[in-house]
Specification:
The structure holds two protein chains of two kinds.
Chain A lengths: L6 H10 L22 H33 L15 H8 L1 H33 L5 H13 L2 H12 L5 H8 L11 H29 L4 H8 L4 H12 L1 H17 L2 H7 L10 H10 L4 H31 L1
Helix pairs in contact in A: 2-14, 3-14, 4-8, 4-11, 5-8, 6-12, 8-11, 8-12, 11-14, 13-14
Chain B lengths: L28 H21 L1 H11 L13 H9 L2 H32 L3 H14 L3 H15 L5 H25 L3 H9 L4 H9 L4 H17 L2 H6 L8 H7 L8 H21 L6 H9 L2
The chains are: A mainly alpha, B mainly alpha.
Chain lengths: 324, 297
């Protein structure tokens, strides 16, 4: 690598190093021809990539392989146990607890994705127009996302957990009874979802703001001159213009919601009576509280497969949009 | 490509913060009146949204139930540091997080360079692999890693924790770096080759030297993920003196009577670093970058 590049090698290296290449190696116009890297370049590339590959194998590849082993064995955290084939998957798919958790995960994800999108969109639109201290509000509204989840769940606990907490007390004083936000199954589920929307809307707000910022305002001026109403402008101009980033943010948020552990676990621990147990929480409890790795990892595997499909969809969408 | 991970304004509006807003609206008369209800609405919404955070700060600095102090006080803070292992937890969090940041950048920058400049089936395949891996649930790999790390003595060990954090940041971090390198023109490197520089030399002397914003945003991303993580910590940490801050804060809830003054004081300590980082390095943040940090949650 320290050797001086000879002119001929340079020419080859230059072909190898495509200008403005994108990380995915996606084809760029005029860059379709496969070029061979010079020996020096590929050697350098090999060494530059090596630490990353080693880590990927150690932290992602090996565990994924081992997870496959455990999912097909009836072991625990100490012993792998005997090979049982797809028995764990069968028992998981046959258990009501799994379907209840899957159902909650689905609902949690739908509310999380569209709830945070709706709130984020509303705020992004409000902040789009010039208002005093708009920048300050933008930063303040990002705080729910920046503050660690352990901290915010602590605060939410203080606000709603017991009948004497602030929010239940307010309800009582308004004569609305004393709702038990985390003790009633339905209310606990609602509370967890509101918490999730509270945590996630800043992400959506940022995504939409970024998309809106690239929209030329003359489009709106032209539209309002043509007599388009506010609603028409919103549905005919704004929504289509932010469609691509909306699509990507929906898929990303789906991945975040399905994988989410602390938001639920820290607030309710999955309770009461498993009302807020999502698939991740169920997998965690199966392994680390019931000490059976097989079914726990089988649940994680089923989630993994779903998420791989989602992320491949996302990857293709991103590559498609980068070619446009 | 590179949507999840836009580290740089120039890398496009897909997920990244798009360039400077060019659309300063000319406010009409009606618009001017509209401004005030918008301001009021946003003020109210922000106030409601920030209630949990304000509550944390207020409780942290007001005297607890057994206190004789009045008004604002630092008593809770000094109590939590003298009666719990808060100082150790803070130190553990700092050590783990900073190691994660350094190693993540050191691994992701070279790999991101190859992803950005290389054009071969292998490179694009690796890029897809990284992308798929970042969406995997942490819970899947945590169980096998727990067994492996237990055998290696890395459970209840800050180094074990760091290795996993680096593993979970490296996927998105590599994409972030690649997206940033995409924005650095190849002509800069070509000039250095003519001067006799090797590919590795042009990477370190030309590309890295011009990548501070990209490196910073990657570092911020790794920082947030490691600082905020709870799932890996709860699985891998066993003893009090190895706890990181999230575990420390949570340990208050194991008692029957939660010491709210203490837990809120510690919570404020825990939220300060990300808020400070965010406030000072705001411009290096990008939507996608922080977005990725959530993927690990």
């Amino acid at each position: 690598m320290s050797s001086t590049t000879a002119p001929s090698g340079l020419a080859r290296a230059r072909r190898g190093l495509a200008p403005g290449g994108s990380g995915g190696g996606s084809p760029q116009p005029g860059q379709n021809r496969k070029s061979k890297l010079s020996a020096q370049t590929s050697r350098t590339f090999f060494w530059l990539l090596l630490p990353s590959v080693v880590l990927l194998v150690l932290i992602h590849g090996y565990p994924l392989f081992q997870a496959g082993v455990q999912a097909t064995h009836n072991g625990n955290l100490i012993q792998t146990g005997d090979f049982v084939g797809i028995e764990n998957f069968q028992s998981v798919l046959a258990s009501p607890a799994f379907w209840k958790a899957a159902q909650f995960t689905l609902l949690f994800t739908i509310v999380g994705v569209f709830g945070s999108w709706a709130v984020g969109l509303g705020l992004a639109l409000l902040l789009r127009t010039k208002i005093p201290a708009g920048g300050t509000f933008k930063v303040l509204l990002l705080l729910p996302w920046v503050v660690p989840i352990v901290v915010s769940s602590t605060a939410w606990n203080w606000l709603v957990a017991t009948p004497d907490s602030l929010v239940p007390s307010l309800y009582r004083n308004l004569g609305l009874g004393t709702p038990l936000f985390l003790a009633d199954p339905t209310l606990a589920a609602v509370t967890v979802m509101i918490f999730k929307v509270w945590v996630s809307f800043p992400f959506m707000m940022m995504m939409i703001s970024a998309a809106l910022a690239s929209v030329d305002s003359t489009v709106y001026e032209a539209a309002s001159m043509d007599g388009a109403t506010r609603f028409q402008q919103f549905s005919q101009i704004t929504l289509p213009l932010i469609a691509r980033s909306t699509y990507i943010s929906w898929i990303l948020m789906t991945i975040f919601c399905v994988n989410d552990f602390p938001t639920i676990y820290l607030l309710t621990g999955g309770g009461p009576v498993d009302a807020t147990t999502s698939l991740v929480v169920l997998a965690y409890r199966t392994v680390f509280q019931d000490f059976t790795t097989g079914p726990g990892v089988a649940i994680a595997f089923l989630m993994t497969m779903t998420l791989v499909v989602i992320s491949v969809l996302l990857y293709r969408q991103i590559r498609k949009s980068s070619v446009e | 490509m590179s949507a999840v991970v836009h580290a740089h304004p120039q890398s496009g509006p897909v997920l990244g913060v798009a360039g400077p807003a060019k659309n300063k609206r000319v406010l009409s008369e009606a618009g001017h009146r509209g401004q005030w209800w918008r301001f009021t609405a946003i003020l109210l919404i922000t106030a409601i949204v920030l209630v949990p955070i304000m509550v944390t700060v207020v409780l942290a600095f007001t005297p607890g139930p057994n206190s004789t102090a009045t008004g604002l006080t630092f008593e809770n803070l000094s109590n939590v540091f003298s009666t719990t292992l808060a100082a150790t937890w803070l130190q553990n969090s700092l050590v783990t997080t900073l190691s994660t940041v350094v190693v993540s950048v050191a691994v992701a920058a070279p790999a991101g360079y190859v992803l950005s400049r290389g054009r071969s089936k292998a490179v694009s395949g690796y890029s897809l692999l990284l992308f798929v891996m970042q969406s995997l649930p942490v819970i899947t790999s945590v169980v096998p890693l727990f067994i492996l790390f237990a055998a290696m003595g890395l459970v209840d060990n800050l180094m074990g924790l760091t290795i996993i954090y680096v593993g979970s940041t490296m996927t998105v971090a590599t994409w972030m770096m690649a997206a940033y390198f995409d924005s650095i023109p190849i002509s800069l490197e070509e000039a250095s080759w003519i001067d006799g520089c090797s590919v590795f030399g042009s990477f370190t002397k030309v590309v890295l030297r011009n990548s501070l914003p990209g490196i910073l945003s990657t570092a911020i991303f790794a920082f947030l993920l490691a600082w905020n993580d709870y799932l890996v910590a709860i699985v891998f940490l066993r003893s009090n003196e190895i706890f990181t801050l999230p575990m420390g804060v949570q340990s208050f809830f194991q008692q029957n009577n939660t010491d709210w003054s203490g837990v809120m004081a510690l919570a404020v300590i825990m939220m300060l670093p990300p808020v400070i980082v965010f406030a000072t390095l705001n411009k290096y943040f990008s939507v996608g970058g922080i977005g990725g940090s959530l993927a690990g949650r």
